[in-house]
Amino acid sequence: MRQVIYALLPATFVGIYFFGLPALRVILLAMIFCVATEAVCLKVLGKPLETLKDGSAALTGLLLAMNLPSGSPWWMVLVGSFFAITFAKMVFGGLGNNPFNPALAGRVFLLTAFGTQMTTWAKPANFPMSLADTVTGATPLGILKEQGASAISGISYADLLIGNIGGSLGEVSAIALLLGGGYLLVRRIISWHIPVMYILTVAVFTGIAHAINPGQYAPAMFHVLAGGLMLGAIFMATDMVTSPISNKGKIVFGIGCGIITSLIRLYGGMPEGVSYSILIMNGLVPLINRWTKPVKFGVVK
User: Fold this and answer.
1) How does pLDDT run across 41-76, given as a tens digit for each residue?
2) Nearest to 174 by CA among 62, 12, 11
3) What are the Cα distances from residue 146, in Å, to 118, 183, 209?
4) Longest distance between any two alpha carbons in the chain, whole Å
């Protein structure tokens, strides 16, 4: 868990740089609220507080913050943290027993309950911007969904790589997320199967759509760099608790996430589909594990 937090630091620093003190505030509040909520749950359940040291609650808070707008009010961060820890983790028995990614569950709950606040995105500005200085605007995927492919011609891939765009804290800098993913791969915290197949599937599907109708659909590279694809594929879909065990299962999981994300982005009413795709595939993990379970040595099918 600590290694994943370290890997998220480049994207965290980029988010703070572009969105200023409000971003730092959201990150600290989410991490504190998640750790405090888990401490209360453990106390109520009569379990020792030693499990707080595993870093999972702090990681959930950081991932939740990376999925929130920088201008999120403190009470909304509190509600999301409470839901993520209590209803998406502790009611199932705590770490290792939760079927769904807690941070994504918290994010989707907030999006459903507080749609206006969750879709009010700040435009990037230099640190240390305050809440009073915040200027809001649409995300690149929001512009694509509302105005069509012709409206994104002014958005450069360089801005998508560096992070000079609007959006949640964790979807602004593809290169920072890739650096963190490379660190996790080198340390063997994650394997390549889920992130590569997830991103590749989105690239293939959106690339085909763009080739058929370039006037309506954006290029594959835009879909790869924009939105929460990098954050979801590298840091959330690879959660060892909620993802398949075998490498074959991870490939199936990644492809499934990519297909659902592409369908929502291309044909759905929402501009983004990463959160929903990962949660849907989380629910299918037991079946995927059963279908892809390796045959024991010496056993004939």
Assistant:
1) 999 988 888 778 888 999 999 999 999 998 899 999
2) 11
3) 17, 36, 17
4) 68
- Single residue among 90, 118, 146 that ends a domain in this structure: 118
Whether the CB-CB separation of 181 and 191 falls below 8 Å is answered with no
Give the predicted TM-score (pTM) of the model: 0.92
Would you say 279 and 239 are in contact if contact means Cβ atoms under 8 Å apart?
no
Q: Following CA atoms 80, 61, 118, 217 in sequence, which dihedral angle do they give, to the nearest 10 degrees?
A: -130
Domain that holds residue 216: 138-291
Rounded CA-CA distance 39/192 in Å is 34
Residues 16 and 110 in one domain: yes
Q: What are phi and psi of 166, to 5 degrees?
A: -85, 160
| 296 found inside a domain | no
Label residues 79-93 b or e (16+ Cβ within 10 Å = b): bbbbbbbbbbbbeee
Assigned token pair, 153:
């011609």
